[in-house]
Design brief:
- It contains eight helices and ten strands.
- The chain is α+β, with helices and mostly antiparallel strands.
- It folds into two domains: 13-168, MutM-like, N-terminal (N-terminal domain of MutM-like DNA repair proteins), CATH 3.20.190.10; 186-311, Helicase, Ruva Protein, domain 3 (Orthogonal Bundle), CATH 1.10.8.50.
- A four-stranded antiparallel β-sheet has the order 1-6-7-5. Strands 2-3-4-8 form a four-stranded antiparallel β-sheet, with helices on one face. Strands 9-10 form a two-stranded antiparallel ribbon.
- It is elongated and about 60 Å long.
- It starts with 12 loop residues before the first helix and ends in a 6-residue tail after the last strand.
């Protein structure tokens, strides 16, 4: 079985693709309706943090050779005994910095779940459940907790990379700024998109422009901004582009506070559903009345680049 370890900064993207052709699918890891978006990944990371940060991985078990692509060589051995110094999120990826100078990168894929049992903090199920068919990676933590990565569709991914070379990893180096960070500001966004002739929806989904936004939340952002997803970015005034910044932050913050959105497979670490889907203004509401006061428009669904866009033709121009 081909093993792919992505942490040599002398490797360029072409050589990694040659060694590991699964990476041709990077775009689908970050651009699919059923993939968890930033709020869902942030919710999972926050659930893992109090259980894993500062703790040692007493024992790691890898039950298959691959998910979306092969696991790195000797992954279980490299993880066993390592202390997790920091748990954080970059875009739609969870990263665990280890005391051995490596970091574990996790992508949940379409159906991946991080399940916690035996948590000494008392927030989760205390007894470890019987192993399930799709429990692909299991971490027994030194505090008695067990963290299980369960992924029926095997669209998730894990990698081990040198911590000091995270920014050069093929999945990370292409990313734009975090939308909730200081690096995402009005002048940046205006400079990035005001000349683009693509539809504004496609531009905001470009992970090199802003990291972590996906189809669901871009639909919601554009509705609140009153901008049609079909409008060319270059046709939008700089004032309206600048106005997207606080709206993006507001939508993402509300979704994180609600625990993300539960569409199909997403669950939090305690197995609970997220609830932001109950606050959708347009996503998934085709043929239903617009909820804007005094608007008699009907939510429309169109396809853009093979993906569904939902919007109100009367409110969004």
């Amino acid at each position: 079985m081909l093993q792919c370890v992505l942490y040599d900064n002398k490797q360029d993207f072409a050589s990694i693709q040659t060694r590991c052709p699964h990476l041709d699918l990077i775009s689908t890891l970050t651009d699919h309706d059923n993939m968890p978006e930033l709020p869902e990944v942030e919710t999972v990371m926050r659930g893992l943090e109090p259980v894993m940060t500062g703790q040692q991985i007493a024992h790691a078990v890898v039950n298959r050779p691959d998910l979306r692509w092969p696991f790195p060589a000797n992954m279980a051995a490299r993880l066993t005994g390592a202390r997790i110094d920091r748990l954080w999120r970059r875009s739609k990826y969870i990263l665990a910095d280890l005391d051995r100078g490596e970091s574990l990168l996790i992508h949940l894929g379409m159906s991946g779940r991080m399940l916690i049992s035996g948590d000494p903090l008392g927030n989760f199920v205390h007894d470890h459940p019987a192993a399930q068919k799709h429990d692909h990676v299991v971490f027994d933590i030194s505090n008695g907790a067990r963290v299980t990565f369960n992924d029926p569709r095997r669209f998730g991914a894990m990698d081990l990379i040198r911590t000091d070379q995270i920014d050069t990893h093929p999945l990370i180096r292409v990313l734009g700024p975090e939308p909730l960070s200081n690096g995402f500001h009005e002048s940046y966004l205006i400079d990035k998109i005001s000349h683009r002739k693509s539809p504004i929806k496609s531009v905001l989904l470009d992970q090199s422009v802003v990291a972590g936004l996906g189809n669901i939340y871009v639909c919601e952002v554009l509705f609140r901004a009153g901008i049609s997803p079909l409008r060319q970015a270059a046709q939008i005034s700089q004032k309206r582009i600048a106005g997207l910044i606080p709206i993006i932050r507001q939508v993402l913050t509300e979704a994180i506070q609600a625990g993300g959105s539960s569409l199909r497979d997403f669950r939090q670490t305690d197995g609970e559903l997220g609830y932001f889907q109950h606050n959708f203004d347009v996503y998934g509401r085709q043929e239903k009345p617009c909820q804007t006061p005094d608007c008699n428009g009907i939510i429309k669904r169109v396809t853009q680049s093979g993906r569904s866009s939902f919007y109100c033709p009367k409110c969004q121009r």
